[in-house]
Design brief:
This protein is α+β, with helices and mostly antiparallel strands.
Length: 958
């Protein structure tokens, strides 16, 4: 079969269930014969063999040395190019003595190349605003390694340096012995961070999941003993074998002329010599097997139980190249959409068989193998029940198929998504589209234009009938090449392989009942009060906003933008929140509040609403927070009225449904039941008990017992009180806005809501966190790893925008030093950093924290090194170079964020919540440019006092 490739699924992206644990089983599980729908061949239509045309705006080529390239002009964001170096080599190509060196090689490309000595590359890029980790990055997987470099395109020198860096990565690594030895500690620390329950369970499951394949033996992180002891020539052998132009692609997408980018690729990569007698790049297989293989792995530190059923194809896949291939991808996607809707409905039951579930057809770890997989998360003791439910839903489709109404909804959803993506085709950020060209290189699939995708999808969808989709189950489900994997916390009576296979055989022999589809009404709101009116309109021309005051007192502020063609974001708040609850009320409703919306609105269940909302790209979520009650939402312009209708209903007609709430509680208890087994969760809880345990409102980490005590009736009552008065709500909408529509919908759906003139504010309690230097060592876990957190948090006399920026910049400057010292100099951490801010509500306060994972034996040394860096900044301020890095990062980030709807929505809401002048946002660049090293030094001396909380997680035997 061909390799599935269905582009642009964004919000509809079908979850490809990750392969889970398995143990070899030699027992065949031949299913009894059950009646099945007839096999339906895909209709033969004209043009199915036609090749998919490549996007004409993408210039593709291959240099004489074999290097492939993709170049596309894309103007969003401005003055930026996304560069990628894709290397068709990963851990699966490692020799026995190289395990982990594909990933190690990735590290070494940041540690000395032809044009950049050790650490100079990161240093240079930070100096032009490119952040290490957040922007500059790379990854290594089984089959591939990809280097990620966003670079400014408005400066010829910076652009040239960007292509020089990419060229160095391709063939200019120095691989000096001292640099290799220095990096061992960093890579071993990265390996350390991956240790834990999942790693231990993987060692049981992966040999079964990737049965009889090299994939089972070549996890990218490798083996610690090899990482610690390999000789430099072993790494150089991997580099010389696989880092070569015929196994590479360069992708450049961004705000620059295509011809300029293409020429730079030719200039930089054309001279790389063609390899002589290169080592053959093998295709690694996932061998077939005639039975069902089962793996069951439990671990006392695991927190989450999962079930995975995977039916691997017997034959190799091929990429999507023809219209027929593309149509088949659509059919597979429609099937997954419909089965997932059914699985979602099961989670709404009072006692759901699993917390969530999904099924889909797609790729496996191997490039040339697809699989149909069903996945569920369950309670630790509920895996067999979850397995049965997944199998039964597949059996239901096998026996009876899907209904026409289900397919119609799936088509409607697909059509709406592709339409929205098409409308925003000229507003997509380069970072969102560059990846498809990287994957096209690896998979061989054709990447057509968005226009082609949209037009072809709309042409093909009507011709796909329900019998054709139903027939897919006959290809998906089979008794051989099947793996069933259970992972989860240790239980008193672990499920056995015999029990698993018994469930499989019983369901295969059963005649489950047909699925009953229910119709839903056509309108969300069946009756509506009289509309309100707009009593006042004000504008802020510099910011570009218009604010409407409605007759009930509510305000609606809009900022029309052209950042996206098919996006409108919404937020709203009113002061009060749970701060107005009594301490007892706050405790009783803390866990219940999250389940309030599970009941649906206007008499419609969540399942009804899901069906009603099919094809509508809209979302609205109300919530009650500590200081405010809020709404968050989004919609396309054509679905804007639905968004306003939902806002109205969440004010006036939230359902109360004990069964829906019971379903929510059941899923939450299943999810959190073993969370304290995780050392990091336990660590966080111990910290919180010390910091917040004296508060009269402290409830601690959720437990099964606390969820049993959650008071739904009280939470519902108080929710209705918090949303009884729409008159003190402020609404904000940013995006492709038609003001006439906003005025109409605001009057109709918000202006018609009650306005009680309550004009409430939040209450501030007298409780404050205890101060003084404190240290807490928590012992939890069996792995040889630790975690360090250093926190300053206390009330301050007053809030200042200037000092808030200085405190944030202090966090950025310290992060640079932590990476330089703790990672690069000491080799003691893989990641870590600092972050700080001042807040204004509910009272002025500082929050500043430093965190990093490390080895238990290095804790004290690394804490001392961190404190030394703080003391240095207190005494001297950050260096001029580091200050420049911080400021350039801010300005580059702002240049992009200011052209997004999300930035402006957040800015408008934050300004009003904090009662700040919104026009200050226009002065951000000036504020950054005015920031001095002295400002940061002063912030360090003022706020990073000797009174801090040091928390250290250590393993139980340390």
């Amino acid at each position: 079969m061909k390799k599935v490739w269905l582009p642009y699924l964004g919000a509809l992206a079908l979850i490809i269930a990750a392969c889970g644990p398995k143990v070899t089983n030699n027992n065949s599980t031949t299913s009894p014969v059950a009646p099945t729908p007839p096999v339906i061949e895909a209709p033969m239509m004209a043009g199915m063999n036609q090749e998919i045309p490549s996007d004409p705006s993408v210039r593709m080529g291959k240099l004489s040395n074999g290097l492939t390239y993709y170049v596309k002009n894309n103007g969003k964001p401005e003055d930026k190019v996304e560069l990628r170096l894709a290397v068709n080599a990963g851990s699966v190509l490692e020799d026995e003595d190289q395990q982990g060196l594909a990933h190690f090689m990735e590290h070494m490309n940041f540690n000395g190349t032809t044009n950049f000595n050790k650490n100079e590359l990161v240093d240079y890029l930070q100096g032009i605003g490119v952040k290490f980790g957040a922007d500059l990055n790379a990854y290594t997987s089984f089959d591939e390694t990809v280097y990620i470099l966003p670079i400014p395109s408005d400066d010829p020198e910076k652009l040239e340096q960007g292509f020089t860096i990419l060229e160095d990565w391709a063939h200019g690594a120095n691989l000096e012995t001292d640099a290799i030895n220095d990096e061992r500690g960093v890579v071993l620390e990265e390996s350390r961070t991956g240790k834990g329950a999942s790693d231990r369970m993987n060692k049981i499951t992966i040999p079964v999941q990737f049965y009889n394949s090299k994939y089972a033996e070549r996890l990218p992180i490798g083996k610690d003993d090899i990482l610690d002891n390999f000789k430099p020539e072993v790494l150089k052998r991997f580099y010389n074998d696989w880092y070569r132009p015929d196994l590479m692609a360069v992708v450049a997408v961004g705000d620059l002329d295509v011809a300029v980018m293409e020429q730079k690729i030719k200039d930089h990569f054309g001279p790389i010599p063609t390899p002589i007698n290169p080592r053959k790049r093998p295709v690694i297989e996932l061998p077939n097997h005639d039975d069902t293989k089962v793996a069951i792995a439990q671990d006392k530190e695991a927190t989450f139980a999962s079930v995975n059923i995977s039916y691997k194809d017997k034959s190799a896949s091929s990429p999507t190249l023809t219209v027929g291939d593309y149509r088949d991808d659509l059919v597979n996607g429609l099937f997954s959409f419909m089965i997932n809707n059914r699985l979602q409905e099961l989670t709404q039951e009072a006692n759901p068989p699993f917390i969530f579930g999904s099924s889909s057809y797609g790729g496996t770890v191997a490039r040339n193998k697809n699989a149909y997989s069903s996945f569920a998360g369950s309670a630790p003791d509920g895996q067999l029940a979850a397995l049965k439910a997944l199998l039964e839903e597949n059996q239901r489709v096998k026996l009876y198929g899907f209904g026409q109404a289900e397919l119609d909804r799936a088509k409607q959803a697909y059509g709406s998504f592709f339409e929205s993506y098409y409308k925003d085709r000229d507003k997509l950020e380069s970072g969102r589209i560059v990846g498809q060209y990287v994957q096209s290189y690896f998979s061989g699939a054709t990447v057509p234009s968005i226009e082609w995708n949209y037009n072809k999808t709309m042409e093909l969808l009507p011709g796909i009938d329900v019998d054709e989709v139903n027939a897919k189950i006959n290809d998906y489900i089979h008794d051989d090449n099947r793996t069933i994997v259970f992972t989860g916390p240790t239980t008193d009576t672990p499920p056995t392989e015999t029990q698993v296979l018994k469930v499989v055989n019983e369901v295969a022999a059963s005649k489950v009942d047909p699925y009953e589809d229910t119709e839903v009404r056509e309108n969300l709101i069946e009756s509506l009060p009289a509309a309100g009116s707009i009593t006042k309109t004000t504008t802020n021309d510099p910011v570009g906003t218009t604010t409407y005051t409605l007759s009930n007192g509510a305000t609606v502020t809009v900022k029309p933008t052209d950042f996206k063609n098919d996006e409108i974001l919404m937020s709203a708040f009113s002061y009060g929140g749970t701060s107005l609850y009594s301490d007892e009320e706050a405790k009783k409703t803390n866990l219940a509040n999250g389940g309030l919306t599970q009941a649906g609105v206007a008499g419609m269940t969540q399942t009804d609403m899901s069906k009603f909302m099919t094809g509508k790209l809209v979302d609205v979520s109300p919530s009650v927070g500590y200081l405010t009650e809020t709404f968050r939402g989004s919609a396309t312009p054509k679905d804007l009225e639905t968004m306003f209708q939902l806002i109205h209903l969440y004010f006036t007609d939230l359902n109360k449904d004990d069964e829906a709430f019971a379903s929510f509680i059941s899923k939450q208890k299943s999810f959190i039941g073993r969370m304290m087994s995780d050392p990091n969760t336990y660590f966080s809880n111990e910290i919180n008990k010390i910091r917040y345990g004296s508060s009269p409102r402290y409830t601690g980490f959720p437990t099964v017992e606390k969820y049993n005590e959650a008071d739904y009736d009280l939470a519902y009552k108080l929710y209705k009180e918090r949303f009884a008065d729409a008159g003190d709500f402020n609404f904000y909408l940013v995006g492709n806005i038609d003001k006439a529509q906003i005025e109409e919908f605001s009057k109709k759906y918000i202006g018609s809501l009650p306005g009680l003139n309550s004009n409430e504010s939040f209450k501030t309690t007298d409780w404050r966190e205890e101060q003084g230097t404190r240290k807490k060592v928590v012992k939890k876990g069996t792995d040889d790893k630790s975690s360090v957190r250093i926190t300053w948090a206390y009330e301050i006399p007053s809030y200042s925008d200037k000092e808030n920026l200085a405190v944030d910049a202090l966090g950025e400057a310290l992060t640079i030093k932590i990476i330089e010292t703790l990672r690069e100099k000491e080799g003691g951490i893989y990641s870590g950093g600092a972050r700080g801010s001042l807040r204004k509500n509910p009272y002025p306060a500082l929050s500043f924290g430093i965190s990093f994972p490390c080895g238990p034996d290095n804790v004290e040394k690394l804490v001392d090194a961190t404190m030394n860096e703080i003391d240095y900044i207190k005494a001297n301020g950050p260096s001029k170079k580091d200050l420049n890095k911080v400021k350039e990062g801010y300005l580059l980030d702002y240049k992009e964020r200011v052209k997004t709807n999300r930035y402006w929505l957040s800015a408008l809401v934050d300004a009003d919540e904090e009662k700040e002048e919104i026009n200050k946002v226009l002065e951000y660049e000036n504020a950054v440019n005015a920031l001095t090293a002295k400002d940061i030094q002063n912030a360090a001396n003022k706020y990073l006092t000797k009174d801090y909380f040091l928390a250290i997680l250590k393993p139980e035997d340390k």
